[in-house]
Amino acid sequence: MDDRVAAVLRRDPVLDALIERYGPITLEPAQDPFGRLIRSITHQQVSLAAGDAILERLKASVELTPDGIRSSDRETLLSAGLSGQKADYVVDIADTFIERSYERETFVDMDDEAVIEELTDIHGVGPWTAKMFLIFCLGRTDVFPVEDLGIRRAMEHQIDPDLTREEMITRAENWRPYRSYGSLYLWESID
């Protein structure tokens, strides 16, 4: 995290305190867009530990590539811990990556809204998953995933337990153009 990021975030007293507590945080984008989406799917609506366990079992069972997922059977996906719905999602993601020849470079020159629109066209990929992709695969610095339960809980704990989503979005506007970094600090505060 460079000084410009810190200067913007430190204007918020809550983030200033989190920066003091946790020090510099870096945003290191993943190079594998398919793997990043699958990670997000495995982590949807479960704890971090449960999502990590499912992802590790999935990696042990199949090659985590579009072809690897397509060549596996449904039972293998289910035995790794995916629900039936999530198994359908990862197969749909694999199909789309194959059909559209997606690579990381496909998304690099798109603006955030275009990436979200492109990804949410895939069955099972919603705004939360697309925003995780923007932050953790593309390294976009100005994304605020208010859809994330961890973000909301951290803001409620750090700022005000009665904050609405709209108030959270308004508060995060002050962190532009580094809302992703603000989000990283909020996640750090609840880990």
Task: Explain the overall architecture.
The chain has 13 helices and no strands. With 191 residues, the chain is mainly α. The model has no long low-confidence stretch (mean pLDDT 95). The chain folds into 2 domains: 3-27 and 144-190, Orthogonal Bundle (Endonuclease Iii, domain 2), CATH 1.10.1670; 33-127, Endonuclease III, domain 1, CATH 1.10.340. It is globular, with a radius of gyration of 17 Å. The chain has helices at 3-9, 13-22, 33-43, 48-61, 66-71, 74-79, 84-100, 104-108, 112-119, 127-136, 149-158, 165-173, 179-190. The two termini are 19 Å apart. Helix content is 65%, strand content 0%.
CATH topology of the largest domain: Endonuclease III, domain 1
Strand content: under 5%
In total, how many beta strands? 0
Tell me the radius of gyration. 17 Å
Number of helices: 13
Q: Briefly note the structural class of the backbone.
A: mainly alpha
Q: Per the principal axes of the C-alpha atoms, what is the gross shape?
A: globular
Q: Helix coverage percent of residues?
A: 55-70%
How are helices and strands ordered from N to C? HHHHHHHHHHHHH
| Multimeric state | single chain
CATH class of the largest domain: Mainly Alpha
